[in-house]
Recover the amino acids of this structure.
């Protein structure tokens, strides 16, 4: 977009009889309506904050009271545990599923496709509710040979707690999405890279670890970071299992006791924003690390302002500039 224009008089001649053309003076265009719109936004935001600070329904003293309440702090830690455990399992399983999807074996490929079809095609809340009923469907977990007496038999309610079921339910759902992200990242690397690595004598594992995966991480990291943030918020759905010790459900239970839901919702939101902010900072540095050598696609505004390049400078007719030469080198 043009930000500058040339301010040069038509037919102006170089000063002091010099043959050298005078320098271009670029004048930045003014954007008054853009500034007006920004001022309006700031005013609206300021009015909203002032109104929220005085509105009794928010009950800010209660927000400060419960923000670091021991029950809330423990629930926030449990939410963080659910996010970390689920994402670790989801990433490992997602990589396996992505490799299976790229396999030339039709059976392996089909099994991975069916998995993705089921877990991407049904709501995560429904899946978590199903995991909450797994103890009704399978009363015991048996280890042994099929159609024989089990060597070990453990009641499902004893072997799988609500926390474990929440981690399994979240991880299996997230693995389907991570598999597609990893597959897209692997496919983004040109096949010539693998051929070149093979020609250099690298094994398959060396090619993947040193060539393919480092390049694909540049594509994988941004959506994977979004999935981690999404997982943090999705933990509020584990109440379907039911698991009631995570942040949102714990806040809701406290608000039901004191009959004051708004302050507890604000408390839960502040904790979610705190964790999300940390994750966004980590994602930024990961993206920066794996983007090394690729180049920054953002425009260099300082260089543009200094040189006038890509600033939309429009030459003025009769400004003394010579027309481009013809193909044989003679002036037009």
């Amino acid at each position: 977009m043009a930000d500058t224009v040339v301010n040069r008089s038509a037919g102006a001649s170089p000063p002091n009889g010099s043959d050298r053309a005078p320098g271009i003076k670029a004048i930045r265009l003014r954007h008054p309506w853009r500034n007006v719109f920004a001022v309006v936004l700031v005013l609206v935001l300021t009015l909203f904050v002032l109104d929220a600070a005085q509105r009794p329904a928010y009950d800010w003293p209660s927000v400060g009271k419960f923000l670091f309440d021991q029950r809330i702090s423990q629930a926030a830690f449990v939410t963080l545990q659910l996010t970390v455990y689920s994402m670790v399992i989801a990433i490992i399983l997602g990589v396996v599923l992505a490799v299976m999807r790229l396999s030339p074996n039709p059976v392996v490929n089909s099994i991975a496709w069916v998995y993705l079809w089921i877990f991407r095609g049904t709501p995560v809340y429904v899946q978590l509710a199903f995991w909450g009923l797994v103890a009704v469907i399978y009363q015991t977990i048996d280890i042994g040979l099929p159609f024989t007496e089990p060597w070990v038999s453990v009641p499902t309610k004893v072997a799988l707690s609500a926390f474990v079921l929440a981690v399994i339910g979240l991880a299996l759902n997230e693995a389907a999405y991570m598999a597609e992200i990893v597959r897209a990242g692997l496919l983004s690397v040109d096949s010539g890279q693998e051929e070149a690595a093979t020609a250099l004598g690298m094994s398959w594992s060396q090619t993947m670890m040193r060539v393919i995966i480092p390049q694909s991480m540049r594509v994988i990291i941004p959506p994977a970071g979004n999935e981690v943030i999404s997982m943090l918020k999705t933990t509020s759905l584990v109440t379907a299992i039911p698991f009631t010790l995570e942040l949102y459900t714990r806040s809701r239970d406290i608000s039901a006791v004191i009959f004051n839901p708004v302050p507890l919702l604000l408390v839960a939101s502040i904790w979610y924003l705190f964790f999300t902010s940390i994750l966004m900072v980590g994602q930024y540095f990961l993206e920066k690390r794996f983007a090394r050598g690729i180049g920054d696609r953002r425009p260099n505004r300082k260089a543009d302002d200094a040189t006038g390049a890509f600033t939309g400078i429009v030459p003025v007719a009769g400004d003394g500039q010579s027309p481009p030469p013809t193909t044989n080198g003679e002036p037009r």
Observations:
- The first strand starts at residue 4 and ends at 6.
- The CA atoms of residues 294 and 327 lie 36 Å apart.
- Residues 70-101 form the longest helix (32 residues).
